[in-house]
Amino acid sequence: MKTTATATKLEGFFNLVEKRRAIRKYKQDNIPDEDIRRMLNAARLAPSANNSQPWTFIVVKDQKTKELLSRPSSQSFIVDANVIMVVLGDPSVSCCPAATWTTRDPIIATDHLVLAATALGYGTCWIATYESRPKEWIEEVKKVLKIPKHLHIIVLVAIGVPDENPPPRPRKNLQEISFSEEYGNSI
Ligand SMILES: Cc1cc2nc3c(=O)[nH]c(=O)nc-3n(C[C@H](O)[C@H](O)[C@H](O)COP(=O)(O)O)c2cc1C
């Protein structure tokens, strides 16, 4: 039997998941450092293979650096985000096999961060097309942000106060993506 307080908290969680959208237009309001710390702490608490935590995060607010980060993607909206979070993966601490989990674990932590940002009222957008980015640009970003050579840039997250309220984007229905006992058996 759920108490009213527990039921309200549960509703809060499901509302959060249902209300989150990719936001690509931001107001020019600042995000207080305390809120950024809460987002980072939510990321820090994420699970990881063998608890290896192969992630680090760089909080970018500098306009010139944001322009550099947005350059090859032709996604200029990210320059207007108050913060761009650069998520890094560390193959030297990552688990079994490192090449795979160096990406997976930081992505899990990033989703924690994104949900925390949503809970705090911010809009976010994942920016993740790194494999196809020019090598020279990756080198330049690493140099400007003083990222150690062995770390990988996994994803960027643009974060800001939303200046749009997009409707839900389509999703596959549950029957298409979930089965009972065997692939193909409807739930
Ligand atoms: C791994 C990943 C990479 C993404 N890369 C981009 C991107 O480069 N540019 C962009 O505008 N949106 C990007 N998105 C946002 C998706 O387009 C968006 O999440 C999807 O269309 C569903 O919309 P919703 O988040 O509003 O539900 C990315 C999302 C994820 C999870």
Descriptive report:
The protein has 187 residues and is an alpha+beta fold. The chain has one domain: NADH Oxidase (3-Layer(aba) Sandwich), CATH 3.40.109.10. The protein is built from six helices and five strands, in the order αβαβαβαβαβα. The chain has helices at residues 4-19, 33-44, 63-70, 98-119, 135-144, 174-177; strands at 26-27, 55-60, 83-89, 123-127, 152-162. Strands 1, 2, 3, 4 and 5 form a five-stranded antiparallel β-sheet that branches. Helix 2 (33-44) crosses helix 4. The longest helix is centred in the middle third of the chain and has 22 residues, at 98-119. The two termini are 25 Å apart. The structure holds flavin mononucleotide. Flavin mononucleotide (FMN) binds next to strand 4.
State the CATH class: Alpha Beta
Q: Please give the count of helices.
A: 6
Mean pLDDT: 93
Number of domains: 1
Largest sheet: 5 strands, antiparallel
Assembly annotation:
single chain
CATH topology descriptor: NADH Oxidase
Order of helices and strands: HEHEHEHEHEH
State the fourth-level CATH superfamily: NADH Oxidase
**Approximately how much beta-strand content do the residues carry?**
15-25%
Termini separation comes to 25 Å
**Number of extended strands:** 5
Query: Could you say which structural class the secondary elements and strand pairing correspond to?
Result: alpha+beta
Q: Low-confidence spans: pLDDT under 50, at least 5 residues?
A: none
